[in-house]
């Protein structure tokens, strides 16, 4: 069995400590997608982060494996290592060039969404005015498909996400998103979006973030409740886990350089507050998820689908499409 965490964040710093990744592995995670940057991070920072993460992985081959295929993940698990690839949150680091996408793939990026909460020239963010996928965005979707990268719609506006899912020739995922019906937050996704994702053959991976679960101190039971909603709506084959745990290391300053305004990316009008920071499920919640999923009515085999097999299926299809 492979446990698949579709999204986690270390500090956006080349010297980030990978101890949290070891905690995930100790809790039973076999694969994790690590974020390497978002729309608020300039390209210089993103490239520095990718270089630093790759160097840490290469320096610890007994612990980590940078992977490009599902077979690599299976082999890493057999070797007692945690498999890692990278994800990118936003299109600004693509510099309006679809040709950047296969370059990122060569560096280890296996998952990307096009907007981080705010609009750009490619796509709409979930906390901005709805326009839909732009003409450049259609070219970017094709480039993501051609590069064998998972097309993600987390943080993306409702209308734009529907456009992306309609345009994609491959299954589309939400790597860390929760049902809006359960918690009406702008970062959560509607039943229409969940159904559209399932129609592509994709997976909605539930986040463990307090704001989106509607609980101040979220637990495995809270995550399982949201998984059960997705499973009941579109079938258990389209539910997964992307806990979106953001690990901080106070000694490292990973604030984006330049004119960075956090209130722009996380606007108070959308319910964000500097005084009320989010909380995350700890990595150890992975040990509790099988039992929590059983409590909401999933069988053991269905829980295995949610915990990893669904994302393995989609990744096998998408990543294998690389020429």
TrEMBL record:
<dbReference type="GO" id="GO:0070573">
    <property type="term" value="F:metallodipeptidase activity"/>
</dbReference>
<dbReference type="Pfam" id="PF01244">
    <property type="entry name" value="Peptidase_M19"/>
</dbReference>
<dbReference type="InterPro" id="IPR008257">
    <property type="entry name" value="Pept_M19"/>
</dbReference>
<protein>
    <submittedName>
        <fullName>Peptidase M19</fullName>
    </submittedName>
</protein>
<dbReference type="InterPro" id="IPR032466">
    <property type="entry name" value="Metal_Hydrolase"/>
</dbReference>
<dbReference type="GO" id="GO:0006508">
    <property type="term" value="P:proteolysis"/>
</dbReference>
């Amino acid at each position: 069995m492979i446990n698949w965490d579709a999204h986690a964040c270390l500090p956006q710093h080349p010297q980030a400590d990978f101890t949290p990744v070891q905690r995930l592995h100790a809790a039973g995670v076999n694969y994790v997608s690590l974020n390497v940057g978002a729309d608020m991070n300039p390209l210089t920072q993103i490239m520095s982060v990718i270089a630093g993460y790759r160097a840490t992985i290469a320096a610890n081959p007994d612990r980590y494996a940078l992977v490009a295929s599902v077979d690599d993940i299976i082999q890493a698990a057999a070797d007692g290592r945690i498999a890692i690839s990278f994800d990118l949150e936003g299109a600004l680091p693509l510099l309006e060039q679809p040709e950047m996408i296969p370059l990122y793939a060569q560096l280890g990026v296996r998952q990307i969404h096009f907007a981080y909460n705010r609009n750009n020239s490619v796509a709409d963010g979930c906390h901005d005015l709805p326009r839909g996928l732009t003409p450049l965005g259609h070219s970017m979707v094709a480039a993501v498909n051609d590069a064998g990268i998972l097309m993600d719609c987390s943080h993306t506006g409702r209308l734009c996400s529907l456009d992306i899912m309609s345009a994609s020739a491959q299954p589309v995922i939400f790597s860390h998103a929760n049902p809006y019906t359960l918690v009406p937050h702008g970062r959560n996704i509607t039943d229409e979006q969940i159904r559209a994702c399932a129609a592509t053959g994709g997976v909605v991976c539930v986040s463990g973030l307090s704001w989106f679960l509607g609980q101040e101190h979220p637990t495995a039971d809270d995550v399982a409740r949201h998984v059960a909603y997705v499973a009941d709506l579109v079938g258990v084959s389209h539910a997964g886990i992307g806990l979106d745990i953001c690990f901080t290391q106070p000694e490292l300053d990973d604030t984006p350089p330049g004119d960075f305004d956090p209130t722009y990316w996380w606007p108070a009008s959308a319910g964000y507050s500097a005084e009320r920071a989010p909380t995350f499920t700890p990595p150890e919640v992975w040990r509790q998820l099988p039992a929590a999923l059983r409590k909401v009515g999933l069988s053991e085999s269905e829980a295995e689908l949610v915990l990893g097999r669904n994302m393995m299926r989609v990744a096998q299809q998408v990543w294998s499409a690389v020429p």
